Amino acid sequence: MIRQPHLFSMALGMAAGCLLAAPGCSGTQAPPPAAKPVPVAAAPAVTESTKSAASAEPAEAVAEPAAAASSQDSIQDLIKRLAATTDSKARVLVIDEIGAVGQNAKPALEALLGVLADEEPRVRWHAARAIGLIGEDARSAIPAILELLSDEDPIVVTQAAAAVALIREDDGRDPIPAADAALYASAVDPLAKTLVHPDARARRAALRSLRRLSTSLEEMAPIVSKQLADADPSVVIAALQTLADMDDDAVPFLIEALKDPKSRYWAEVALAEVGPTAAPATEELAKVVGESGDEERLQAILALAAIGEKASAAAPEIAKVLVADDASSRLAAAFALGRIKAAGCDECLEKAAASDDRFLAATAAWARARIHPEDAVLVREAVDRLTKGLTDADAEVRAGCVSGLSDLAEEFDASGRERLAGEFVALLADMDPDVGRAAGAALIRLGPAAVGALQPKLDDPGIRLNIMEILAALGPAAKPALAELVKSLSDPEPEVRGEAAVAIGAIGPDAAAAVPGLQKLLTDEIVGLRYAATYALGRIGPAAVAVEPALRELTESKDEMMSTVAVWAVLKIKPEDKSLFEAAVPLLRRALRGDRENVRLEAAVALGDIGPPAASAIPLLELVSEDDPVKPVRAAAAAAIEKIKGR
Q1: Which of 310, 300, 302, 361 is nearest to 336 (CA)?
Q2: What is the DSSP string of 454-492?
Q3: What is the pLDDT of residue 4?
Q4: Which of 71, 83, 97, 590 has the fewest CB atoms below 10 angstroms from its CB?
Q5: What's this model's pTM, rounded to 2 decimal places?
Q6: Rounded CA separation 64/75 (Å)
Q7: How many other β-carbons are positioned within 10 Å of the β-carbon of residue 323?
């Protein structure tokens, strides 16, 4: 059985940036303006993924900027150097120089193939990347590259999949000779299996490569659909998240998957995650609503709701469901009609608003207000119903009503939004964590209007940590609470001190008054607090220059995380100081492979700010820009590459 989702929360949680559970923020969408770089009480956890990534390129592997060879003589020199060295760091340097030559590096292909079996993962993935950069002339290497899709290191798998895409993309022959066409076709099944790889980077690279190989979507989509249909459900969920994150690249596959009963449900789930970009799937989803069983119909309706106004063509089919007997489907239909802003559905929504089902009635009233925001009577009726729902005995009703009110908040004046914030703050302490999450998301969505209601609660021990997380998500808008946050830096509870530091860091340059308090935390006995304080000082930037000498000392710390964060902070405080560039680049490269998205994002930005001296990070930045599972991190890496290249 499928648990009935919190419909409003599902749609509005992403808009808030993250959902706040009672113990803390657990959102996985794009980060809010400033989120926590590290936990307060401990050093970063090391996952299997980070272990293998770390082994792929140790921090001490400092590469000089890759120099492109300009002649066959220089290629031969590079081949000799590669053969002559047994040091893995030196091998990576030479391989990257070969890769920089690009299409003219074909004479080095055999030498690169020889190091694909190197015991060091970083050598293997740099070699796979260099082969891909040769392009069409490296097509004979495809069988060897495909073997790397089974490599134990996820970065090796990622770069192998990407190399196949690069080779095929460079092959402009039309038609492609039969033997080479068969070679490309041999990559399809191994890449399709990689779609359910445990690492998101490998999944992304595999899907991109499949798109490059595809001569016919109709031929390719069933292969992808079959792989998803046959895989273990726990693996499929991760694969779907990757598909959803790839938007335009994934939608054609997902539309085809809707046509196959075995993969239809999973495709609907992914399309709901894609949201408005999935608009081309509207027609096929509408067919599912009209023809499929309850579970598939419900998920199709939710996918159409996520698409929003671009799915208006499906409104007639959804309206039919609103008069059905199934309670879950009726609720989803009312919600979807509101999200779509479906004109011409007033009669069925009016009837639903008179239902004995309190949640359905409130949802229908909300939908009518969404469709007719100019109608003050309908808006008032919806607000009254949803406000009453905040005290409903059913936690699902309370959570849904919080999110529904948040959605209508733009119809309120300033004082009305502030009153609404007070209602939401009270629900942060709700016994049900889903209600707390919905309230936290709604407060973030209210923006500056929420700060006045949040400030007085910073003394409430039951919810003050939640309050600080919300303030951190609000970023610079939280400046009115700065004095209270500075006071919290001296709190007896370590977690409170740490959360306060993170929230202050989120405010950014306007939090200069917090510098003395943060400086005291730099010597705190708890290492996580030192990380948080250093991060906050870096976020404040040049206004924290008084603390720069202390931070510079920390750049020499034997604690690699501490030295990394300290280097980053000094670069933010003194962006023109080049003295740390040599030490910073390898540390920031390592940070790019961390398991925390904000750490990767800040590392990418810092490398871009360093500019050309960070050229050795380009191969890793390219990987991040294409295959990091978080969009803002990919964008930051792409921007960093442009800066480093001087564009």
Answers
A1: 302
A2: HGGGGG-TTTHHHHHHHHHHHGGGGGGGHHHHHHHTT-S
A3: 33
A4: 71
A5: 0.74
A6: 18
A7: 11
